[in-house]
Structures are given as structure tokens and as C-alpha cells.
Amino acid sequence: MAVQFLLDFGLAVRQQREARGWSQELLAEHAGLNRCYIGEIERGQVVPSLLTLQKLAHAMQLRPTELMACGETIASRRHANQARLMAIAG
């Protein structure tokens, strides 16, 4: 469950970054973070701190709660897709 949360959050960061046409390097520069760390976040390989969440959100002109909500939306869609597949299967 916790691992999936990290994957969903990482995907949210990636989607928000790509929506702006930014590279990982540009997001890292705006957020004051390392480019490799951005990649690790996007792949769900690390647990970012609250300070990192704030830096990422601020860099993309979002509130931290908005960035978290993006991750929740991804999780909700995944759950809905899984439910549809289960209904089709059986």
C-alpha cells in the first residue's frame, strides 16, 4: 500500500512536470533539488520529506495539497480501472 502511494505520487509529479514542458533538470533547478532525486521521486524509489513536497509544489506554482491531490486522483483512477477489470473478468 505504501509503495503504491509513492508510485502514485511520483506519477503525479511527473505529470505535473510534463504538463509544463519541463525536464527533470529544470524542475530540480526551480525546486532547489538534485535532478537524480527528482527521478527517484517520479519512480517511487524514495520517500520525499514534507519540505521536499513543499519545494516541488512551490516550483510548479501549486499548493502542497494540490500536488498530493493529483496523486490521490491517480490512485482513484487506478482503483476504478481495477474494479472494471474485475467486473469484466467475473
UniProtKB/TrEMBL annotation:
Matches recorded under PROSITE patterns: HTH_CROC1
Leader sequence segment: none
Q: Which keywords, in A-to-Z order, does the entry hold?
A: DNA-binding
> Which positions are tagged coiled coil?
none
**Please, which domain of life does this record's source organism belong to?**
Bacteria
Query: Is DNA-binding one of the keywords UniProt gives this record?
Result: yes
**Which Gene Ontology molecular-function terms are recorded?**
DNA binding; DNA-binding transcription factor activity
* CC per GO annotation: cytosol
Q: Which residues form the HTH cro/C1-type domain?
A: 13-67
Give the protein's recorded name.
Transcriptional regulator
